[in-house]
Amino acid sequence: MISEGFDKPNRREHDVKREVFLYGSKEECPAVQTHFIVIGTMRDLKRKDKLVEAAGDAYGKTLSLLTLDVCSDESVKQCVDSIKDRHIDILINNAGVGLVGPIEALSLDEMKQVFETNFYGVVRMIKEVMPGMKSRCSGHIIVISSVLGLHGVAFNDVYSASKFATEGLCEGLAIQLLNFNVNVSMIEPGPVNTEFEMKLMAEVSKKEFVGADAETLNHFRTCYLPTQVNLFQGLGQTPEDIAKVTKKVIESPRPPFRNLTNPLYTPIVALKYADETRSLSVRTFYHMLYNLGGIMHVSVRIMKFLSLGWLRRRAIAPT
């Protein structure tokens, strides 16, 4: 039965514009091209100016915008119902929220909100769109995940857990949907350098984190946060980089399931599978944070200045 998913004819027509549904739209839209009709969504359309500016002449022609809150069953249904025949060829799940800090100082409500958006938001959208794709025996579900959905990182415990859950969900769906000629692809960026991320880091650095012990807070503030800022600023990709990878995956005749966007993180992911107990990666990250924190901070700064343009260009290849 699995082989039928590969053998069924590809029903994509190059002379017909495919309907792309992108939620979590911010400033970049990977498919605002003549080959696609794109429906972007935002919770608040009053904040659409940057996206409209980036879309240029495409807005109102091949790009339209709808209101959507992925944390609301009603909003998701109303949004999809408003699309003609509920026909969506490509679903791009792009909404997400982060949560950083010592877990003992984070509230359960904060943790639930991360899962509500990052995991259940994906589930809601797939449940609404997938039946139509299955009935047409054609479609592509794309989820903007994270390298943190492949390995955990200290102080990103809850965010990483939400991405692990999403990766597991989609891996199971990918197997069964091949029988309906529907593809599932994960886009897995490392750090993406945006104003939002830098603002978040600045806010987190001032947070008290009541309930965390002094030693943990010291490592968090003096080692983790400075290193993260340097990683995002020096080695992070741009939203445009991620959009290019996503577009390439969309246009692939046989889209890969997993797509790391930054080859600099390939060794980190490979480290997890270097031994069957997975202890190697845990101990390595432990030493990097607790024994080599200062050295790591300096090393990242050096890599920031030495990173070459050609290396950044290579980082946009899905393979």
Mean pLDDT: 83
Overall geometry? globular
Low-confidence stretches: 1-16, 306-319
Query: What is the total tally of β strands?
Result: 7
What percent of residues adopt helix (DSSP H or I)? 40-55%
Largest sheet: 7 strands, parallel
- Distance between the amino and carboxyl termini: 27 Å
Output the structural class. alpha/beta
What is the radius of gyration computed over CA atoms, rounded to a whole number of angstroms? 20 Å
Q: Main sheet: which strands, in order across?
A: 3-2-1-4-5-6-7
What is the subunit organization of this protein?
A: single chain
Strand/helix succession: HEEHEHEHHEHEHHHEHHHH
Percent of residues in beta strands? 5-15%
Query: How many helices in DSSP terms?
Result: 13
Structure description:
With 319 residues, the chain is an alpha/beta fold. It has helices at 2-7, 49-55, 73-81, 108-118, 120-136, 157-177, 195-206, 214-235, 239-251, 266-272, 279-291, 293-306, 309-314; strands at residues 18-23, 36-42, 63-67, 90-93, 139-144, 182-188, 258-260. It has a seven-stranded parallel beta sheet with strand order 3-2-1-4-5-6-7, with helices on both faces. The longest helix has 22 residues, at 214-235. The radius of gyration is 20 Å and the shape is globular.
